[in-house]
Amino acid sequence: MPQQHSIGLLGLGGVAQGLLELWSQSADPRFRIAWATDSEGAAFATHGLDPASLLAAKRGAGLRTLRGARFEPGVPLAEVRSRAPCDILVNLLPCNYENGQPALPVLRAALEEGVHVVTAEKASLVLGFEALRRSSQAGKAHLRYSACVGGSVPFIPILEWMSQANEIRRVTGVVNASTTYVLSELEARRHTPQEILERASKLGILERDPALDLEGYDLAAKGVLIHNTIYGDPLPFKRADRRGIREFLDEPDKLRTGTRLVATVEPGKVQLDAPVLPMHSPLRVYGLENAILIDTPHAGELHVRGVGAGGRGTATNVYGDLLRVAQLLKGGERTDGRAPVRPAALHPNV
Ligand SMILES: NC(=O)c1ccc[n+]([C@@H]2O[C@H](COP(=O)([O-])OP(=O)(O)OC[C@H]3O[C@@H](n4cnc5c(N)ncnc54)[C@H](OP(=O)(O)O)[C@@H]3O)[C@@H](O)[C@H]2O)c1
Fold first, then answer.
1. Where are the domains of the chain?
2. Which CATH superfamily is domain 5-151+312-330 in?
3. Which of 65, 134, 192, 315 has a 20 to 30 A CA-CA distance from 306?
4. Domain 156-308 belongs to what topology?
5. Domains 5-151+312-330 and 156-308 share a fold
């Protein structure tokens, strides 16, 4: 029997449900769900919540109807772990770029107490980068965030691995599938802007607050996470340049075919732009695709491209991070003062 890690699930939206689908189809004895929360409350089970039953309850009459579990309504997120401990916190709450709430203080407290964190939620990570780093150092806990960039495409693990031994001069990325979907649908001129937004929402690729995607917050945050993964000095989120694609929704006739929202990441700099990409540009992706170009002096230009958005796909990167944490713990690799957060939320040289 492999070592079992207890999981606390913060949030039960599209990504969490994707993870529960994966575990419903193929149980993984390495993980046990100690508790799960949504905006109504938390469900606890001493011997673990069954993924399929949890999924059915969430999609049906709600967590309070889950059999074999204790439901507590309105329990503050900061108090859930005191009701039932967990080894790994999985943060699948919505993004709030004003202050990183409600996730940020919960993650900090967990890391400080040695609870490992896997997150798909970016806002707390980019706004509280330094604070989370200090917390993970203090608690010697791992923090992983592969699902924050690319949904199901493992850009962050690839960049983490590459940056250990390669110099990376620049990363250029089209990694906000929502704006790529909107722009490529707008240029196809089959649907109205309103219809396109509704379809994006149904596909689960728009944030609950669509402004986060359409006004460039999501892509700017991804740029900062790419930056902080590959370069030594973390970039504060407020220093990232931001722009969106609202103008094309308001006046679709102004859109030129091949326009994409692109992030350019260089040391100390994240810049967003909406250029018209040439027909054969590797970054000219469509629909739910993401792509990055990694410019290196010794390996030339590397191109990574894949479909990466939606709950189920994103859940694969969350699961990958959970497996990595389990491996690190099995191998006895603990964080230390020098490189406490992996994959390089902190660069090894920090
Ligand atoms: N979907 C994607 O393609 C994708 C890709 C990469 C990263 N992400 C990120 O992953 C995270 C989760 O995405 P998602 O699509 O699963 O989001 P979502 O569908 O909006 O789900 C958010 C979940 O958080 C719960 N919640 C909200 N506020 C809460 C609070 N104060 N206390 C407890 N629970 C609360 C919601 O509860 P209710 O269910 O009761 O409303 C819901 O279950 C987001 O940060 C997103 O940016 C998503």
1. 5-151+312-330, 156-308
2. NAD(P)-binding Rossmann-like Domain (3.40.50.720)
3. 192
4. Dihydrodipicolinate Reductase; domain 2 (3.30.360)
5. no
In this structure, which residue's CA is closest to atom 3 in ligand 1?
310
DSSP string, 93-138: PPP-TTT-TTHHHHHHHHHHTT-EEEE---HHHHHTHHHHHHHHHH
- Cα distances (Å, whole numbers) of residue 3 to 6, 24, 31, 330: 10, 20, 9, 8
Q: Is 95 in the pocket of ligand 1 (CB under 6 A)?
A: yes
| Tens digit of pLDDT at every position of the chain (350 positions) | 779 999 999 999 999 999 999 999 999 999 999 999 999 999 999 999 999 999 999 999 999 999 999 999 999 999 999 999 999 999 999 999 999 999 999 999 999 999 999 999 999 999 998 899 899 999 999 999 999 999 999 999 999 999 999 999 999 999 999 999 999 999 999 999 999 999 999 988 888 899 999 999 999 999 999 999 999 789 999 999 999 999 999 999 999 999 999 999 999 999 999 999 999 999 999 999 999 999 999 999 999 999 987 899 999 999 999 999 999 998 765 543 333 343 333 332 22
Residue whose CB lies within 8 A of the most ligand 1 atoms, among 9, 10, 12, for a mutation test: 12
